[in-house]
């Protein structure tokens, strides 16, 4: 059984193929995160999914906390529990079911992660975003990443949707990247550029869809920042983020977007504002973020999020079936 904290299966089941062990005993050598999942292992996982579903999905969706219903819209779903996918991590967070759903949505072939992986769960960033590479090798061209986030911009209200047009990678400031370690050019370049990571056409289409849905006043465009979590932020941290131009804060998405852009996927991402972040000191308990509130707000707003996503997918599919 693995004792190097490298296996995707925490129970270390006998016979489970792991991504890191090899005949040369690389299991005892400190291994850069990016090598946890060599290209061939990602390929095997992608084959497992495309053969198992009989589909090559074109659009990948990552459901944020409490937004698992995005995947419930998928028709003729083929469901893969994470624990049954070879070399896949397992979800440990409430509100993240831990399954991959493959099928069609508005005529387009899609695959959705009902449950993502977070740094605070103890997974290295390369492992958190590994499913994005699986999506790529399954045929995915567009990544739709969603998250629950705290609103720092005072104009944002709980329940609003912020279309991400940029991010501040706080984990990157601290020296962490999903691309750390040797680069495999089959995925992308050593030094990828990240300007224009968030597809402008998709943002503009989403704004139009918001208008058609009559929720334009609840739609914003802004900057997201990912912190490591699992603790929520201090007032001083929130003040600093605001000064840096951050509009919403969360604990995910950025490493997925970096991985997607590295392998040249088109990215659309949004934050559902599940709580307002206090940026002034106060003794009021109700100003403290908590996961129950995050989940409850996400549940309340899932209909609007689902409609936004399905309409946008419809447009993509209609423009190039
Ligand atoms: O997976 P996301 O980013 O939507 O989840 C957010 C961040 C934490 O996982 C959790 C905190 O309530 O919600």
UniProtKB/TrEMBL annotation:
Pfam families: PNP_UDP_1
Coiled-coil features, chain-numbered ranges: none
Protein name: Purine nucleoside phosphorylase
Stretch list, region Disordered: 1-27
Domain of life: Eukaryota
Sequence positions that bind a purine D-ribonucleoside: 233, 275
Pathway info: Purine metabolism; purine nucleoside salvage
Keywords tagged on the record: Glycosyltransferase, Transferase
EC numbers, comma separated: 2.4.2.1
Organism of derivation: Drosophila erecta
CDD domains registered for this protein in UniProt: PNP-EcPNPII_like (cd09009)
Gene Ontology molecular functions: guanosine phosphorylase activity; purine-nucleoside phosphorylase activity
């Amino acid at each position: 059984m693995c004792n190097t904290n490298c296996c995707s299966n925490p129970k270390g089941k006998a016979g489970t193929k792991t991504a890191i062990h090899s005949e040369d005993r690389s299991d005892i050598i400190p291994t850069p995160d990016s090598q946890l999942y060599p290209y061939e292992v990602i390929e095997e996982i992608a084959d497992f999914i495309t053969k198992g579903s009989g589909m090559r999905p074109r659009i990948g969706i990552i459901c944020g906390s409490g937004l698992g219903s995005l995947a419930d819209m998928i028709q003729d779903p083929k469901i893969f529990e994470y624990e049954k996918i070879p070399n896949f991590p397992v979800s440990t967070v409430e509100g993240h079911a831990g399954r991959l759903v493959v099928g069609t949505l508005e005529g387009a072939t899609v695959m959705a992660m009902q449950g993502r992986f977070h740094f605070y769960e103890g997974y290295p960033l390369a492992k958190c975003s590994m499913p994005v590479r699986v999506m790529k090798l399954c045929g995915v061209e567009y990544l739709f990443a969603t998250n629950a986030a705290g609103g720092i911009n005072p104009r944002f209200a709980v329940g609003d949707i912020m279309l991400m047009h940029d991010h501040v990678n706080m984990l990157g400031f601290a020296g962490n990247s999903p691309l750390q370690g040797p680069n495999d050019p089959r995925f992308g370049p050593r030094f990828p550029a990240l300007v224009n990571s968030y597809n402008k056409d998709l943002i503009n289409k989403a704004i139009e869809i918001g208008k058609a849905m009559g929720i334009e006043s609840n739609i914003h465009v802004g900057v997201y920042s990912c912190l490591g979590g699992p603790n929520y932020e201090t007032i001083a941290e929130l003040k600093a983020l605001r000064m840096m131009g951050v509009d919403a804060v969360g604990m995910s998405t950025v490493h997925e977007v970096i991985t997607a852009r590295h392998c040249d996927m088109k990215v659309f991402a949004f934050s559902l504002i599940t709580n307002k972040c206090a940026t002034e000191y106060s003794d009021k308990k109700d100003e403290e973020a908590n996961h129950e509130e995050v989940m409850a707000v996400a549940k309340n707003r899932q209909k609007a999020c689902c409609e936004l996503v399905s309409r946008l997918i419809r447009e993509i599919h209609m423009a190039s079936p």
